[in-house]
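The authors assume throughout that readers already know how a fold can be written as discrete tokens. In essence, backbone conformation is discretised, so a fold becomes a row of integers matching the chain in length. A single example would do more here than another paragraph of explanation. For illustration, here is how one protein appears when written out as sequence plus structure tokens:

…
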Amino acid sequence: MAEEGGVVLAGSLAGEEGFTPEIGRTICARVAAGESLRRLCREPEMPHRTTVRRWANREPQFAEDLREAQREARFEQRRLDRELAAAKRARPRPEKGGSDSSYTPAVGEAICLRLANGESLIAIVRDADMPCYGTVYGWLKRHPEFEAAYVQARMIQADYFLDEAREVALGSTHETVWSDRLAFDTIRWMTARMAPKKYCERLVLDAEISARKAEAAGLGQRRLTVQVVDFSRGPNGEVLVAPPRNAEEEAGWERAYGKPYDGPR
């Protein structure tokens, strides 16, 4: 990695061969402090997430350090989530207006922007200055303009997930193919559910739509038919069905009595 005037040149970090123990420690330290790889790798001086995956596949010590950093971040996030939930419960509730009184177009726009950039709503509401999960859904019911922006953000998020699935596939190796397949299938499933007309397999979608239309059309036309039959044994020892329901059962009567079935005996 080249240096100029004591400053590390950023461009060398983005390449496949740009890994050094220093940049590995930097990434792990920031991940352990709570930053996601997605957000960290957006910075121009940092490598792409696919490059970080390849480094982890190629450098066993870096892979181990990164897993430990992610584990520490999860534990710390759970602790912070519990503290935040306790703080929210301890807040005095307003006498009027409820949680809706905190809604502003700026907060709604911030939520939608982060959704469009691939963040989950769970991750967004973890921030101390964001409302809780249920409050966001209350806003969707009470603010049509926020609901419209939210739906649009989810559609854009589906495009983001499509690109993310591609990155997972490109970064996969023989050692990580099974875990990457799980991640790929999960992202693909979410993408198809969020934008079915755009990303769901056409044959599957058409078949499901046709089945639902046929089911809906036939709900008022279905009739239950019950047929009562009697089983007996003929003179030749063959089991006979009265009345016969098909040609084979008709033939059984002819073999037993030499004539077709002619009614109850």
Remarks:
- The first helix runs from residue 21 to 32.
- Residues 1-16, 96-100 have pLDDT under 50 and may be disordered.
- The first strand starts at residue 3 and ends at 4.
- The two ends are 101 Å apart (CA to CA).
